Amino acid sequence: MESGKQIQKAGNNAQQIQASTIIFNQGISEERVRTIFNEMIPIALQNYTSDAYNVANQRINKLEENILPKIDEVEGFLSAFADPSFQILLRKAQQTAAATDREDDYALLSELLASHVEKGNSRKNRAEIEKAVEIIDKIDNDALCALTLIHVIQSSCPVVNSCTKFLWQLNFLFQRLVYCELPTGRDWIDHLDILDAVHISTQWTKKDISEDYTSYLNGCFCTGIKIDSDDYQRAIELLVSIKLDESFLVPNELLDGYVRLPLRNQDQINHLLCSEDDNSERRLLTEDEKNKIRKVWDLYSKDSSLKAQVKSNFMRLWDEYESLHRVKEWWNKIPKNFYITGVGKTIADINAKRCCPDLSNTV
Known about the structure:
Helix content is 55%, strand content 5%. By secondary structure, it is mainly alpha-helical.
């Protein structure tokens, strides 16, 4: 008799079908995610006494409430629950959640878990996220607010072609980021340094708060071309040669009597689109057209006194916005030079996202 032989019997006129074993693998379900989460709680709380167990369990349940919505929001989040490295991080997040009573921490921990899914292919990112999970409950609220604000100032900028719109959007952004009284003195910096969120360094020098913005948006913060001057006439000739006219130039909001190109910076020239008429498809400028726009840019006044006037007018407008003025005054009084570490940036990123969910879409 042959081993493994299969015999089927059927009645007359019946069709016989033989098949090997079929396995249906539908992956992790949302119900299974809840089960995995709950299976791991006793492991996360194994060192707690019965006196603290119930409180810790209630806090971990708040973490679960913040995690579940991420299943539909973050691609790959559901399947990550079957990944051993994610389960290790999840257990650490549960332990941190058990140790904190700050409501915002549960949302921050869920964002860190989502970041692990989105950026987990990099060991560097994984290490920073894991460290962030371990210390998120130890950061004072005002230090966290300050860390987030500084990171956003150093890394984000409203994408606009107008000084007025820029200041309005930045003020709106700061209003949401400054959710508590900003810390003064040096203790908050030492606190963040102990947690490795920042490193105090004499080699890093704090810039003027407007420096990065005015550098990136140098098309808005410029002198421009004096109206009716020889340079103005030359600019019109260049624009007409590429089928544009003087209406392409816009008034300089920071210097009366001057006009400028409607660009936020010179690099934007490479991405300008145009069309021959209303019925034509838009296209990128040719190299000759780009060069002529650059020649118009080169006609901007280089007078140092006018440049100083532009900066003075900009800071005057800045101070007209309450949040911008308050942040500038605080920024100028920061007593130590330091830089934000990778861990600090990870924490600041997810806290900024918590405060301003639309941040990535507006900067």
